[in-house]
Amino acid sequence: MTKLSPLQKARYQYTPKLPKMLRNGIAEISVKEGEATTSVADQEKIQALFPNTYGKKEIIFEKGTNTSEAKKHVVGVILSGGQAPGGHNVVSGLYDALKATNPENQLLGFKNGPSGLLDDDFIVFDDAYIDQFRNTGGFDIIGSGRTKLESQEQFAVVAEVCKKHGITAVVIIGGDDSNTNAAVLAEYFAQHNTGTQVIGCPKTIDGDLKNEDIECSFGFDTATKTYAELIGNIQRDANSAKKYWHFIKVMGRSASHVALEAALQTQPNICLISEEVAAKKMSLSQIANYIADSVEKRSEKGMNFGVAIIPEGVVEFVPEFSVLIHEINELLAGAKAEVFNSLPNWKEKYLFIEKGLTKESFEVFSILPEGIQQQLFLERDPHGNVQVSLIESEKLFSSMVKAILDERKAKGTFKGKFNALHHFFGYEGRCAFPSNFDADYCYSLGYNAFMLIQYGYNGYLSKVSNLSRPADEWVAGGMPITKMMNIERRHGEDKPVIRKALVELDGKPFKFFAANRDVWAVETAYTYPGAIQYYGPAEVCDLTTRTLALEKGE
Ligand code: FBP
After folding, report:
1. pLDDT for residue 344 is more than 90
2. Spacing, Cα 84 to ligand 1 middle (Å)
3. Considering the entire predicted model, what is its pTM?
4. In which element (H, E) is residue 164 found?
């Protein structure tokens, strides 16, 4: 038997907090239906694509007599996509509600993400198994995966698997893509009268699955607190040693919510926000000059150190860089990749690139450090495209800043020192022990998901809101997934998808940051959030993110 750490033992004993209306016992949870819904945009098209699940009503739960149909449920659950702290609590909340309703009910955990449903590979949960995972981080309870469930053929296989095991509902715990697919699967089940329901739960550390109904995706709270702790520690180190500039890339595949939240918690000298870079059409050298200005101003005050946060997806938001990536993808399309790869050395490859790119894109390419140039041609995905997320943008910007400062030094305008160190924080936060907020939120999402199943809803996202208030005041209910959808162009086709939430430049979190960052860029205004606290006063342990608090006007 593996020896448990004291915190692991203590977290097993933690009782997650439920919203008040879910605390009265299953027999006293009644449902209140609200207004019929419409999609956020493209209403006619979405309605035509989802004739059976479109326009359903928003619902909330309240104290009252449980009027749901008494029937035995066999529920299948999957974890989909990247890990996010709290996934285990969604499963344990779902399990507890399901067993509290009827001990005969069963929960099947399909392994390794959506592929588990296709391969009919699952375990049947029992108390002993679930108890090993309560309030712990990770998705190792059943594993996760990125297989997409989106074709009619796949849906037919899933329908067969559900029929074989008498599965009455499937719960999909995932991000915007996985929940989009959950909505399409729900429509398929309704259309084919399979009798199986589909319920989604909003997961992703990236924080980009949110809208007027979903206040935040789970995992964002814990992951950002973990990164903020590390960034705060680095800031202390920088301010102690006074000799390094730290360039810290943080996860967030495209949106910059993680970077922004980390900056709100730590007040670094620089934080790039990809959405702003795109809106202002900033070039790579504009960004590098912006950082170099901060380095120079701080050095004039004797501070040859600093911290810059770089969101993982930023380069894709730089217009000239996206054009360059597009041209590189074209340059190596099909057989041309073989020609390129057969060239004997980098010098010849470089000439090939020079000939193949437009003048403008070659100019951008030529200012990149050689390591990054080579990365653009080495790291390809299975479709032959550049994997932008693998680009070490923290190194890209620090070397561009160095080149600018060297020039300024030669001209005599920069007299300070610039030594850079690099970090990438992503995987460090995705499986942390969930904060009390995520432990409570996730357990509530799972518990609530079973209530939606019990009341017969299909194609709904488990919704828990009023999250900036204590859990007691949270509101539990459900929202049709189609309400969050619009039509977007994906791989050359119009597709119904849940709209991804990027950082809003007129939103309160960004505005607060923008109003303060000029001071942070020059002064040492660091704040130190410290490690996540699990035990102690609520104002230290149960608070959620600055983003949510600012969005709620608190
Ligand atoms: P999800 O959108 O699936 O939640 O994953 C987000 C994320 O954590 C990003 O922040 C990151 O870019 C990506 O996953 C990394 O993916 P992988 O785990 O496949 O390396």
Report:
1. yes
2. 9
3. 0.96
4. helix 152-165
